[in-house]
Amino acid sequence: MSQFFQVHPENPQARLIKQAVDIIKRGGLVVYPTDSSYALGCQMGDKNAVERIRRLRQLDDKHNFTLMCCDLSQLGLFAKVDTAAFRELKAHTPGPYTFILNATREVPRLVLHPKRRTIGLRVPRHPVAQALLQELGEPLMSVSLIMPGEDLPMSDPYEMRELLEHQVDLIIDAGHGGVSASTVVNLSEGEPQVVRVGCGDPTPFGVAVE
């Protein structure tokens, strides 16, 4: 049976955040809010937790996980960032964007793209996500909470509780979430390329919005 924390969306209770991080450090799966949608997260490099997420989401080994980082300095430990990429990151973080970058050796192999050694990284703006990351002190391995057969992320924490209470260790309820994933931008090959249009405005990267 999973735990269910009701956390203030703008001023998250420090006591509950500490308890959430303890669960993550013990190998737990957590459902938590971001500025795009709710996400599934676990401790970076926890092979057992990663396999649990793959089973829950029915993902193959080619699916890219995202490292949620608290700020750009932390992101820079896990990605190779040149001057051009840094300008883009500085202009668009924190926010609802995931950036694909070439990974450093700090990134666990089990979350790298198997052929390209790239990783998705993101700095979320949501206060609850930020509080978790600050308390954890390292990135949170994450995927959007999109269930098999569905196109949109789950948004109602009570529906999450009903569906997932025996499959995750903690659900953080910070109110209804968004139903759009982040916009994904590939910065690993020079010029920015928008891979997926989500809730982050793609027009700064040359993609017109219809």
Structure description:
The protein has a ten-stranded mixed sheet with strand order 1-8-2-3-7-4-6-5-9-10, sandwiched between helices. The mean pLDDT is 92. The protein is of the alpha/beta class and 210 residues long. It is built from six helices and ten strands. The protein is globular, with a radius of gyration of 16 Å. It has a single domain, classed as DHBP synthase (Alpha-Beta Complex).
Summarize the structure.
By secondary structure, this protein is of the alpha/beta class.
Key phrases:
alpha/beta, DHBP synthase, ten-stranded mixed beta sheet
Write the layout of secondary structure elements.
Blueprint: E1 3-6, H1 14-25, E2 30-33, E3 38-43, H2 47-57, E4 66-68, H3 72-78, H4 83-92, E5 97-102, E6 118-122, H5 127-136, E7 140-144, H6 157-164, E8 170-173, E9 183-186, E10 193-196
Parallel strand pairs: 1-8, 2-8, 4-6, 5-9
Antiparallel strand pairs: 2-3, 3-7, 4-7, 5-6, 9-10
Number of domains: 1
Helix tally equals 6
Q: In CATH terms, what is the architecture?
A: Alpha-Beta Complex
What is the top-level CATH class? Alpha Beta
CATH superfamily: DHBP synthase
Strand content: 15-25%
Round the Cα radius of gyration to an integer and report it.
16 Å
Q: Report the sheet with the most strands, covering strand number, pairing sense and barrel closure.
A: 10 strands, mixed
Stretches where pLDDT is under 50 for at least 5 consecutive residues are: none
Q: Percent range for helical residues?
A: 25-40%
Which topology does CATH recognise?
Answer: DHBP synthase
Main-sheet strand order equals: 1-8-2-3-7-4-6-5-9-10
Counted beta strands:
10
Helix/strand structural class = alpha/beta
Q: What's the pLDDT, averaged over the residues? A: 92
Write down the overall geometry.
globular
- State the distance separating the first and last CA atoms: 44 Å
SSE string: EHEEHEHHEEHEHEEE
